[in-house]
Amino acid sequence: MAMTLRKKKRRRSSYRAVKINPPKFKLDQLPFLFMVMPIALFTSLPLIYIFNHAFKPFDELLEYPPRFFVRRPTMANVTELFDMASTTGIPVSRYLFNSIIITLAVVFLSIFLSTITGFALSKLKFHFKKTLTKVNTIAMMFVGAAVVIPRYIVTEQLGLIDNFWVHILPMVAIPVGLFLVKQFIDQIPDELIEAAKIDGASSFLVYRKIVLPLIKPAIATVAILTFQTVWNDAAISAIYINTDSLRTFAFYMSTLAAPSNIVAGQGMTAVASLIMFLPNLIIFIFLQNKVMNTMAHSGIK
């Protein structure tokens, strides 16, 4: 038993996922940095503009020709956004709270379902395994607009219209996330799984103790894809929700840019755009290296 455990640990320690980013800085990277830096600076201009635009006073927002940098930064736009209530009296903080809760719940559930389903399709043996894999691959071919009507009919039959759960349940199944996770788990040696089972580990214990630590890059990728999809989604609030208190911040932001509010709401729209953009930027900065490793590992070019 002890010998088997030592072998399992050696096998686990010897397995390394594919990585394309260098672990540390080296001098021979300088020529590549000199080539990449001008492109990076150019592509960062929209990011700089978003930050500057959110803190411009009203006269600078409407100035023509528009200026790239703010001259007199102000927090008035932020204060106006959070002090303003919608026509039904719902505060902006309520929409923001809904978005945060929905996004966290969907990210957690989608990671759990993608990883445990990917483990089952990759390493477990059962009937219709290949059929389910093909069904997931086919599901990736359909864009959201193609299934709007069937999705609405199913949602109505389940009684989820104007229900908070309609934001969560339809979003937890992500075919692309399952595909990436399965491709990643396929590279884990079968001997590692078999050694754990010989020691008496159940399938769930193998999934929790062995598979999950080895697929962290894939988990990070699923987290980013899910976060961006859910955080920026305003369609569910517009189609399935009738009660304003159940709607999300993305939907509220779309109302700020309405034709009737296109001039007066410029400052609030700029701040709302920054709030919508910041979480996406932060999560991508911290997890982008794992995303690149996952794409290389799963064979996506």
Report the total helices.
Answer: 15
- Uncertain regions spanning at least 5 consecutive residues: 1-5
Per CATH, what is the topology? MetI-like fold
Query: Globular, elongated, flat, extended or rod-shaped: what is the shape?
Result: globular
CATH top-level class? Mainly Alpha
Q: From the alpha-carbon coordinates, what is the Rg to the nearest angstrom? A: 24 Å
Number of strands: 0
The largest pleated sheet is described as:
none
- Secondary-structure content class: mainly alpha
Mean pLDDT across the residues is 80
What name goes with the CATH superfamily?
MetI-like
Could you say how many structural domains there are in total?
A: 1
For the termini, the CA-CA separation is: 43 Å
Determine the fraction of residues in helical runs and give it as a percent range: 55-70%
Q: List the secondary-structure elements in sequence, H or E.
A: HHHHHHHHHHHHHHH
Strand content: under 5%
Give me the CATH architecture, please.
Orthogonal Bundle
Report what the structure shows.
- The protein is an all-alpha fold and 301 residues long.
- The protein has a single domain (75-298), classed as MetI-like fold, CATH 1.10.3720.10.
- It is built from 15 helices and no strands.
- It is globular.
What is the gist of this entry?
Helices cover 65% and strands 0% of the residues. The protein has 15 helices and no strands.
List the helices and strands and how they pair.
Blueprint: H1 2-14, H2 30-43, H3 45-54, H4 58-61, H5 76-83, H6 92-123, H7 129-139, H8 148-157, H9 175-186, H10 190-198, H11 203-214, H12 216-231, H13 235-239, H14 249-256, H15 266-298
